[in-house]
């Protein structure tokens, strides 16, 4: 994607992302004087710590698209697509992860110093939504207009109709939202009293954290709390437990 990045996300490790989100949560705790518990108040952290606003707008979609939300960096604004209000109401975890995803782009991805650079002559700023979620898979398409600020991208603009997040960017901002919604210290504390090999128990935990079950299982897997073999729904209490079980047979 032809976009000015603030960080090279190619090799950004999960522990580095965890450190960023932990800092944001601790800043919020210091501001409010109260410890953050589940469910993490993602909207308040994004508003009060990152300084981003929220808005509901109707975002036009092309055939085959499902645009859940967008980020307008110039206005420090996350916009949620009112066309999918019913979906968000049915799945509050989806709304929260979507907000976290857009916040991740703001916090660790885009170069905010370039947002107010003088624009090239004859180039008007388009306040367009910058994230597009393709309906058939979790692909993020960026249409943020960086050509307005940098002549390196000006000639590319006419060819740019829909760009796609690189895998490393997509992975980094996805890990950001899951880390923000499920900080490691809260997860490690709560799973002490949870049978992590039980799907019903995991669904209860997902409800407690107000996240989707898929978001929870991926986070637990990344933290080494559970291991689910590819193509299976059998849950093990970590990879070592899975390997040990295999050796019994």
Describe the overall structure.
- By secondary structure, this protein is mainly alpha-helical.
- It folds into two domains: 1-115 and 167-181, Zincin-like; 182-248, Arc Repressor Mutant, subunit A (Orthogonal Bundle).
- Helices cover 43% and strands 8% of the residues.
- It contains ten helices and six strands, in the order ααβββααββαβααααα.
- The chain has helices at residues 14-32, 42-48, 85-90, 92-109, 151-154, 167-181, 184-190, 199-209, 213-222, 239-247, and strands at residues 53-57, 69-72, 77-81, 132-133, 140-142, 163-164.
- The strands form two sheets. A three-stranded mixed beta sheet has the order 1-3-2, with helices on one face. It has a three-stranded antiparallel beta sheet with strand order 4-5-6, with no helix packed on it.
- Helix 1 runs parallel beside helix 6.
- The N and C termini lie far apart (48 Å).
- The model is unreliable at 116-164 (pLDDT under 50).
Give a quick rundown of the structure.
The protein is built from ten helices and six strands; from the N terminus they run ααβββααββαβααααα. The protein has helices at residues 14-32, 42-48, 85-90, 92-109, 151-154, 167-181, 184-190, 199-209, 213-222, 239-247, and strands at 53-57, 69-72, 77-81, 132-133, 140-142, 163-164. The chain has a three-stranded mixed beta sheet with strand order 1-3-2, covered by helices on one side. A three-stranded antiparallel beta sheet has the order 4-5-6, with no helix packed on it.
């Amino acid at each position: 994607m032809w976009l000015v990045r603030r960080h090279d996300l190619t090799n950004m490790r999960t522990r580095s992302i965890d450190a960023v989100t932990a800092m944001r949560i601790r800043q919020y705790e210091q501001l409010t004087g109260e410890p953050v518990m589940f469910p993490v108040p993602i909207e308040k952290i994004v508003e009060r710590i990152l300084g981003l606003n929220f808005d509901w707008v109707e975002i036009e979609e092309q055939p085959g698209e499902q645009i859940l939300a967008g980020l307008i960096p110039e206005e420090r604004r996350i916009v949620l697509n009112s066309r999918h209000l019913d979906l968000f109401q049915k799945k509050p975890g989806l709304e929260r992860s979507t907000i976290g995803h857009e916040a991740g782009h703001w916090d660790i991805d885009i170069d905010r110093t370039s947002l107010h650079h003088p624009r090239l002559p004859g180039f008007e700023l388009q306040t367009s939504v910058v994230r597009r979620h393709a309906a058939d898979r979790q692909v993020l398409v960026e249409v943020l207009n960086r050509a307005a600020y940098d002549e390196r991208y000006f000639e590319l603009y006419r060819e740019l109709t829909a760009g796609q997040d690189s895998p490393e960017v997509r992975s980094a901002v996805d890990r950001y939202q899951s880390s923000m919604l499920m900080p490691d210290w809260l997860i490690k504390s709560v799973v002490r009293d949870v049978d992590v090999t039980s799907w019903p128990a995991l669904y209860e935990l997902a409800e407690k954290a107000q996240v989707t079950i898929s978001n929870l299982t991926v986070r637990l897997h990344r933290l080494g709390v559970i291991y689910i073999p590819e193509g299976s729904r059998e849950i093990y209490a970590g990879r070592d437990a899975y390997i040990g079980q295999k050796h019994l047979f």
